[in-house]
Amino acid sequence: MMNRALSIRSSNRSSGASTHSHGSNSTHNPLGPARRNFLSSLRGTTQPELSKRLYRLIKSANNLISAHETAAKERVSIATQLSEWGEQTADEAISDVSDKVGVILSEMGEQEDTYAHALDDSRGTLKTIRNTEKSVQPSRDGRNRIADEIAKVKAKEPQSTKLVVLEQELVRAEAENLVAEAQLTNITRQKLKEAYQAEFIATVERAEKQIILARHGLRLLQLLDDTPVVPGNARPRYENASQARQILNDAEDDLKDWRLPDVLLSNEGSEDGNFTTAGESTPTQVQRRRNPGSPGRGSLASGTGTMNGGVGGAEGRTTEIGT
Fold first, then answer.
1. Residue 44 · residue 57 · CB < 8 Å
2. Of 56, 127, 218, 233, whose CB count within 10 A is highest?
């Protein structure tokens, strides 16, 4: 957790307006939606045949990432609204529990945003395959063009001296294409594996951390006495504030202690038995890259940190048009 406070009320009132303003600016594009869609469609039609399918996949992945970023922001917004609503009920128990539940919900939103960034990393890895496909297409086209020309000349002038030159060109083109095709298959295998390993690791991390948070959220709710009272009788005084704080501390500790399951750190199907291939980051490095400066969790009980500014999903990722 990233420097979480025990309450999300103190800072959100002052930062709410600036957060909404910043969010709206981050989606602004001076080209306008019509121009943006036109450029996106144009890029799609100018892709080489070899890379068209992967181009569309990468574009769809961008929409998926945006959806997760939006979900993260909405989760934080809901957490803030829950906390502020609880405060205005003038019920000490509801006020405290709703605020602490808001902290849990907000951290769940942060985990969603972290997941979105991991998906973006995976998407970026797939671009390496797409770019390689684009570079191989001219080699294929050149080889096929020469082969077609040889076939035409043989049909019209079987004894033409031009055939010798063309056949020499074909040999060179086939040699160049052979190198390009080998590079393509090597990069495709490596980067496909790398991209989806990173995505699945992020999926496991997101799921298990949100389970941790949800379980502590249920603990918080147990502190709220919902026994019906007879009209005119007073409820017992709320005395669980310290327990609520401890639950947040427990949640923080559990997130700090979380590790990727060992079974995911080995790959029995690979020759070297290692989950990562040569040149790749280890799962821990991927995890720390998504949460720079810490093993990924910070503190629920100290500071204000990212809670002040909400979840910075879209701002942390470069929006691309049609890529």
1. no
2. 127
Give a three-class secondary structure readout of 132-180: HHHHHHHHHHHHHHHHHHHHHHHHHCCCCCHHHHHHHHHHHHHHHHHHH
CATH code, domain with 102: 1.20.1270.60
Would you say 104 and 220 are in contact if contact means Cβ atoms under 8 Å apart? yes
Residue 34, domain member (yes or no): no
Question: Using alpha carbons only, what angle is made at residue 309 by residues 223 and 198, rounded to the nearest 5 degrees?
Answer: 85
Backbone angles phi, psi at 274, to 5 degrees: -105, 145
Structure tokens at 268: 């029995």
Place of tokens 């083109």: 173
The letter for the amino acid at 214 is: A
- pLDDT tens, residue by residue, 276-314: 433 444 444 444 434 443 333 334 543 333 333 333 333
Q: Is there a domain that residue 307 lies in?
A: yes
Which domain, by its residues, includes 265? 9-21+44-126+199-225+238-313
Q: Give the residue among 271, 264, 270, 306 at the shortest CA–CA distance from 287.
A: 264
Please count the residues of the chain. 323
In angstroms, the CA 216 to CA 249 distance is: 10
List pLDDT tens digits, range 76-121.
999 999 999 999 998 999 999 999 999 999 999 999 999 999 999 9
Residue 194 belongs to a domain: no
> How many angstroms separate the CA atoms of 21 and 203, rounded?
31
Please tell me the pTM assigned to this model: 0.68
